[in-house]
Specification:
By secondary structure, the chain is mostly helical. It has one domain. The chain contains nine helices and three strands. Helix 4 packs across helix 7. The relative contact order is 0.18.
Length: 229
Amino acid sequence: MILFFVIALVLAVGIANFARQRYETALQMGRRASPLPQTAGEVAREFLDSFEASDVKIVEHNGFITDYFDPKRRCLFLQRSVMNGKNEAAWGIALHEAAHGVQLRGMARALEMRAGNIRLTRYVPALAALFILVLGILKRPPLAFGWRILAVIWAIVMVLNAMSLPIEFHASKLAMAFLERKLRSDSEALERLDAVLKGIAWRDTAAFLRSPMYCFSALLPVGGRMRPK
């Protein structure tokens, strides 16, 4: 029985590590200059306008949490390096997140679920581990039982995160369809950008590994200022 919980812990961390590798590989692949001299922010604006989503604002924001679409405020927050970036990684990040703004029309509930799952992925793993550690020190319950609880929590968080992956890949697919129209004569650039967009779809699954950083930032007095207002 203990082996089952150990496997659950290892799988949760393993999947998150796999996602991190896919995302980092995409960023490395995307270091090449973009096929056109437009910034990522300009391309994202063009993408949104092509889907008649002109009401979605693109806001530059440099903070701990950025490069994401906020469905409640209909704002796409991009850090400066992405907003003004002229490489394929910046294009990929901006277009992927902009695609969530387009998804809002027919997938509002799915996007709400995705947002909730992302919050769970960022904060629950570290908070659960800290809680179990405190209980272990107090010996209530026994440490072995606490690790089992932790394994179940981590497994549930990862399963819920995995349920959001189709939404992420759909966003990258929307962005790729736009690029196929825009860059129809540049097959090499399209092939590279397709790989970049597929890797970027794994970003929020990899956030599982950064949970301690997200929790620490949230507890800091300046944490609120590190997020878009």
